[in-house]
Amino acid sequence: MQRRAASAALAGAAMLLAACGGGGGGGGGGGIGIGLPPPTADTGRGSVVTNPPEQASKLTADQFRSLLEADASGRALLQVTGTPKCGIETRYLEYRTIGGKNEATNATAAVMVPSGADVACNGARPVVLYAHGTTAARNFNMAKWTEAGQPAAGEGLLVAAMFAAQGYLVVAPNYAGYDKSTLPYHPYLNGDQQGKDMVDALTAARKTFSGINVTDAGSLLITGYSQGGYVAMAAHREMQATGKAVTASAPLSAPSAIGLLADYTFQGWPALGSTLFVPLLSASWQQQFGDVYGSTSDIYESQYAAGIDTLLPSLTPITTLFANGKLPQLALFPAGATPGPVSPDLSIFYGANNLIRQSYLTQAASDIQANPCPGNALPPTAASLSTTSPLDCRPAVGFRKAARANDLRNWLPTRPVLMCGGANDPTVNFLSTRATAGYFRARGMPAAALTVVDLEDNATTDAYSAARAGFAQAKSTLAQNSPGSDADKARAVTLAYHGTLAPPFCLASARGFFQGVLAAGG
User: Fold this and answer.
1) Cα–Cα–Cα angle for 27, 300, 431, nearest 5°?
2) Is 389 in the same domain as 464?
3) Same domain for 338 and 393?
4) 436-446 per-position pLDDT tens digit
5) In this structure, are 355 and 468 located in the same domain?
6) pTM over 0.90
7) Which 3-state string (H, E, C) describes 278-335?
8) 348 and 442, same domain (yes or no)
9) What residues make up the domain containing 392?
10) CB count in 10 Å sphere of residue 518
11) pLDDT band, very low/low/confident/very high, at 161 (cuts 50, 70, 90)
């Protein structure tokens, strides 16, 4: 790995995590790359395509530290993650899983193995099962995080520094529909499939540990950011339902209350990145249920409808898709739409060359009025954010039905959970976290088992105060260094909030939480 690769990864760091993430060419596509297996071969869910998984990269702790120290971005990251204790060997795993219709497919993952003389890097190590954020890039591959230009470089670097370099084994799936997966779509926020995909990656990875001199301590810590926060929670739910051991989980900035977020979108509170998220959702949920639309033109304006169901993920960079008119960058709804934005600052999502038809917006908004879900009230109330039956509703519109079915306010964790985000997040509304945590509490989850960290809550003094202070400083520094008026500086913070500013501090909170659980014998 050369210095320019690390610098490129740092420069793009968490921008690839969630909001409008991804893009880039190369990679992707292709089959599993093996012949027909012998009759006795293990070819079911969680089986390994190649064992041992190939080595993708290997760095000593000193090499990794030197690369991070080479520029200002790396030095800033080191302030959050701490100096690397361990070297990192990254393995590239291919495994078998299922798609959104229970069809057999393959997927890939990174396995990051700590090494070195420090006691933290040897012997039996705890496993972090990490779920990545939304990306439009079909060739996204966490195992190639050391490669300049790889869409996963920024997120992979952050995860490597936060966990692998501190002595955790990391298993980080790329998900079905990405990299070498033969699935022609991605089951985006399909809770059942994404939970199973994570379990299958972990199952396969554990089958390879003995062949790569890895000892699993048996502790399983599940985390992820943005889409990955949702996927981490879905994986915890799946493992609990099937009797598999989980030590703790930390779903971060998670759209776990996806029914709430969908209803808010149709009522005038869209998210930054909605013109990417909605097509991913409709394509995924159409594969899952078959009734989200009769044709794509039911939802989308004619200039986008043809091919939008197969557009994402793509080998074409998202910026090029915007430039070529395949998607609008911001205009989700038409100018003058009814209902309109709930506040003037959201008017940027209403304009010319919009994505979603007024007729569909009318249909969805009318369904919300006729068939409201008690947990999705807008404006929110204390009761709506803490009801034991948030999904006690019967939507008629296919998109809302799918959102309700994939909402994660339908189970109760029995192991410790930390949720983290920022109250001013423009991409994943923090009310998703508040509503999910409120549901868990209303169902009787003990206070000691559920921790919620709002990075904006500087009035609270606790184990996460340093993360909040660091986040506040990062926002202030970005504003000070951004050119233009006060409004321009505020806009820079808004654009960077979800994808760049919050992730390191939520991940640092997750690591501290995991350390506490492990120290307590969890």
Assistant:
1) 80
2) no
3) yes
4) 999 999 999 99
5) no
6) yes
7) HHHHHHHHHHHHCCCCCCHHHCECHHHHCCHHHCCCECCCHHHHHHCCCCCCCCCECC
8) no
9) 259-406
10) 15
11) very high
